Amino acid sequence: MFITFEGIEGCGKTTQIKRLENGLRRKNIPLMRTLEPGGTTIGHTIRRILLDSNHKNLSPLAELILYEADRAQHVEEVIKPALDKGQWVLCDRFCDATVAYQGFARGMDMVLIRTLNDAVTRGIRPDLTFLLDCPVEIGLERARTRNRDHAQKGQDRFEQERLAFHRVVRRGYLELASKEDKRFVIIDAALTEDRVEEEIFRVLTPYLVNNHYDI
To answer: Of all helices (H) and strands (E), which one includes residue 128?
Structure first.
């Protein structure tokens, strides 16, 4: 089972993916939690480049290629081996993020993005994607507070983008979800963390039953 979490900055993906990991481990489900960018040693270096707020002159094409390079290494080193071993994989961002951010918001060619995504993922696609959706004003305030609290100053290049950029990202995600409504589940991320977690587990209940896990 390959589950991805998507959404704008500050939507609560990281919090909810950790909560889901804890809940699934209590059910003795073998799993791997990972993220993009940065899910490998090489990817961690790429992540620092991509998120560094000093890199304001990073071109959209260079940004796209760096994300795809991170994903190629991630699929090869982490995601495919875990799935081959029968583990569930929980991933904080995957291909949809590239379409939303580099495609919709940066205006990069969608055909190029699809071609690169197809090449680096080796046919691996999420079985289920949780889109944590909230107004951009809420998400950005959360993200900026998080960055202050966790001493992540300087790793906030995307948080520094204009409000209009984030609104386009959100619209892009919602458009993707409308086109693939069997894979995407939209969750109201403006709810409390507990309510969001409850909704995620409600959606997952049929998958747990079908795989004979206790619910």
So the answer is: strand 128-133
CATH code for the domain of 55: 3.40.50.300
In a domain, 214, yes or no: no
Query: What range does the domain containing 82 cover?
Result: 2-206
Instruction: Determine phi and psi for 26, rounding to 5 degrees.
Output: -65, -20
pLDDT tens for the chain, 215 residues long, are: 999 999 999 999 999 999 999 999 999 999 999 999 999 999 999 999 999 989 989 999 999 999 999 999 999 999 999 999 999 999 999 999 999 999 999 999 999 999 999 999 999 999 999 999 999 999 888 887 776 655 556 667 888 888 999 999 999 999 999 999 999 999 999 999 999 999 999 999 998 877 656 55
Domain count, the chain: 1
Quote the pTM value: 0.92
Going by C-beta distance under 8 Å and a sequence separation of 6 or more, which residues neighbour residue 111? Answer: none
The amino acid at residue 141 is E
In a domain, 79, yes or no: yes
